[in-house]
Write a structure and sequence with these properties.
two-stranded antiparallel ribbon; 31% helix; single chain; Glycoprotein, Type 4 Pilin; 3 helices; alpha+beta; four-stranded antiparallel β-sheet; 6 strands
Amino acid sequence: MNSIIHGGFGVNTNNQLQASGITGQKGFTLVELMIVVAIIGILSAVAIPKYADYSSRARATAAKAELVSIKTAVNLCIVETGAVKGCDQNTNGIPETFTATRNITGGYSVKNGVIKATSGATNDGGTALTIELTPNLTAGAGNMEWTESGTICNETRGLRPGQGDCGEVKAKPDTEPEVGG
């Protein structure tokens, strides 16, 4: 007998399945697997560069945050001496060294209040972005404004223009000639 009675229902045996062209093997076809691999490849091609940009921007922001203590020391030097000149590293309470981190990798210096360092953020080519913080003291003002420059002001991998103390991108004047007359 080719069927087994189970709970009142006829269950086909493996011989009947093979005779009808249905086998017990299950799985994915090669085409299905290739489609899945292609989809994963496309997603990876988009996601990995975006993640690298995001990570670099995060390091640029963290680098700026790690330099706040140095900015504070420079601010105090300017208040105590009444001038930016002479506010150098290893003088007036400004640290001589800065311990390297994942976000500030080296190149630390302070000369006449200008703080320079190399960040852990990188450009598309893998070169470390530099940060330069310049104090701007307005006569009679109660606060210090800082201008940020260097390669860290990088739209895709660093601080975007207008973010932090990176200058705004100025709109280019319309140079196209007017049509008509």
